[in-house]
Design a protein that fits this description.
By secondary structure, the chain is α/β, with parallel strands linked by helices. The chain has a domain at 16-162. 52% of the residues lie in helices and 8% in strands.
């Protein structure tokens, strides 16, 4: 029984909310797909939907695992239609049903794989076409197979947008905030895209996950590991405490002079109670002229608590859009400031210590 435990336990189950989302989507999607296909092909709405059984398997992929390469529109439509054509052809050319069925499935897999539209339900489409009780014509690939496949993809796309899922699935590229071709700073170290491609080539097997999704997953694993290694360093340990700040009720001219005197580009703005209300920068203060600091106020300020581990700041301060984080208490009273320079210095120091420890251990 112990040896069977891994087989019985299986992978981590899908979250209940996601399972409900997928099941409800398949219920609505398959139902509407069949009824709409009947209406489009025969011109009348019938209680009997125009469906083939493999569309149910396609729905599992499109609604439950919409990020899978095997569930993308090219795979669903192209795979099913191609498999139907192969199945009909094998049935016409091979008199023996068993041989026709085997040839249909094997040739369908080969055709789908070579054309980049591998779709597991396509094997069932080919098998069904080869074993049909009555000989099928090539129009079977258009209706019901092609028609239902197209409708299913359209319905899955609409449902994905309504429920906050990307279908067709696209992995958003990590773009530079400065609109340059350089990758974000946190992706310039560690493994490279060439390393990932080489590892996939050596692995040599088809994975049911896209390359870009693998890249995003591995980057997240790196961040998680880095966070574990540096979780003991808190923001309160590295923050600057002697802070140059601006008052919300002072005029922009005096605030600009203070920034220039301290060679600062930006500074936090506090109200009369010492609570953070935002940030002010040189350019905005200059534009405000003799007006109040509030006229140049940017209320969006990156804030963290004193107990926040510094690794939480890495994805924030390394992207280039934000250069400092404000350390505040529960009442938003300013306790300190952490800049990119502060974070860089502590990470360098941690690297030096880790290198020395490793050298002594060796």
């Amino acid at each position: 029984m112990t040896a069977l435990a891994p087989l019985l336990r299986g992978p981590a189950p899908i979250r209940p909310r996601e399972a409900l989302r997928a099941g409800l989507g398949a219920l609505v999607g398959v139902g509407l797909c069949g009824l709409m296909a009947r209406l489009l092909s025969e011109g009348e709405l019938s209680a009997a939907p125009l469906l083939v059984a493999p569309i149910g398997a396609s729905a599992v992929l499109a609604f439950a695992v919409p990020a899978s390469p095997l569930a993308q529109p090219r795979a669903v439509i192209g795979g099913n239609v191609m498999a139907a054509l192969v199945g009909v052809t094998c049935a016409l050319l091979i008199p023996n049903p068993a041989l026709a069925a085997a040839a249909a499935v094997g040739c369908a897999i080969l055709a789908m794989a070579l054309t980049g539209c591998l779709h597991p339900p396509g094997g069932a489409v080919a098998l069904g076409a080869a074993l049909a009780a009555e000989p099928l014509g090539y129009d079977y690939a258009l209706a019901p197979v092609g028609l239902c496949s197209v409708l299913l993809v359209l319905l899955a796309s609409a449902y994905g947008r309504l429920t906050g899922r990307s279908y067709p699935h696209r992995t958003a590229p990590a773009a530079s905030v400065h609109n340059t071709r350089d990758p974000p700073a946190d992706q310039r170290v560690g493994y490279t895209p060439a390393d990932l491609d080489a590892a996939l080539a050596r692995y040599g097997e088809l994975l049911d996950v896209g390359r870009d999704d693998l890249d995003a997953l591995f980057r997240e694993v790196e961040r998680q590991a880095h966070g574990r290694l540096h979780a003991q360093i808190l923001c309160r340990d590295i923050m600057s405490r002697d802070i140059i700040f601006l008052r919300a009720d002072e005029d922009a001219g005096s605030a600009l002079s203070r920034l220039q005197a301290h060679e600062l580009r930006t500074a936090p703005v506090l109200d009369a109670s010492g609570r953070l209300v935002g940030m002010a920068r040189r350019a905005e203060l200059l534009a405000a002229g003799d007006g109040p600091v509030t006229a140049a106020l940017d209320p969006a300020a990156q804030t963290v608590g004193p107990q926040t581990p510094i690794h939480a700041l890495l994805p924030v301060l390394s992207r280039g859009a934000i250069h400092e984080a404000m350390v505040v208490d529960e009442d938003r009273r300013l306790l300190g400031v952490i800049t990119q320079t502060d974070l860089l210095a502590v990470l360098y120091r941690a690297h030096v210590v880790e290198t020395a420890i490793s050298a002594r251990a060796a």
